[in-house]
Amino acid sequence: MTSIRLPLAAAGLALAAASFVTGCGKDETGTTAATTTTAAIAAPPVVSDAWCRTSPMVADAGACYLVISNSSSEAARLVGASVPPSIAGKAELHETVQVGGMEGSGTTTGAGMGSSSPGGTMAGNMPDTTMSGGMMQMREVDAIEVPAGGTVELKPGGYHVMLLELAEPLTEGTMVPLTLRFEGFDPVVVEAEVRSG
Ligand SMILES: [Cu+2]
After folding, report:
1. Tens digits of residue pLDDT in 165-175
2. CATH, residue 187
3. Pairing assessment for the beta strands 61-69 and 151-154 based on DSSP bridges
4. Which value, in Å, is the radius of gyration of the alpha carbons in the chain?
5. Residues of the chain above pLDDT 90, percent
6. C-alpha span between 115 and 139 (Å, rounded)
7. Distance (Å) from CA 94 to ligand 1 centroid
8. For the whole prediction, is pTM greater than 0.70?
9. What is the Å distance from ligand 1's center to 55 Cα?
10. Is 167 within a domain?
11. Percent of the chain at pLDDT exceeding 70
């Protein structure tokens, strides 16, 4: 009598499969509407063109640059970065600003950096002072915002990931595993190539 059970079982499976597919389709329709409002959470920012360079003036500091693209419908925020301790003691989000009309040699910079940077190694010795023109000054920022559907470029003279307390000078051609933390997303890890500039 097993010959009867088999078709029955098969029919049962077919029914189950059919209802499963139907249910699945309904669910998809249902979540599509919901997903629209939460699309920003589902689409993490994309990081590209990451590279780092050693500061020509500070032996134990470096800077990394990269491009962040945000295809979602909500602004994204880069809130932190890190590298393995074998590369550097810490990584900070910095911005470089040009200070016009300042003739001093970094006295105000020292005050600005003092809280986050032990010693005065950064003051007056910023990697980005190679920019021509006025005084360049760096300061730590809490976050770097990437507008919805927009792109932000971390580049010399602007935003950068500052590597402090380098274990050893960055070697051109090597790769730095850079971990980027975006608010509301899993950390993004990119390989940043060390270049001369
Ligand atoms: Cu910096």
Report:
1. 999 989 999 99
2. 2.60.40.1890
3. antiparallel
4. 25
5. 51
6. 10
7. 5
8. no
9. 10
10. yes
11. 60
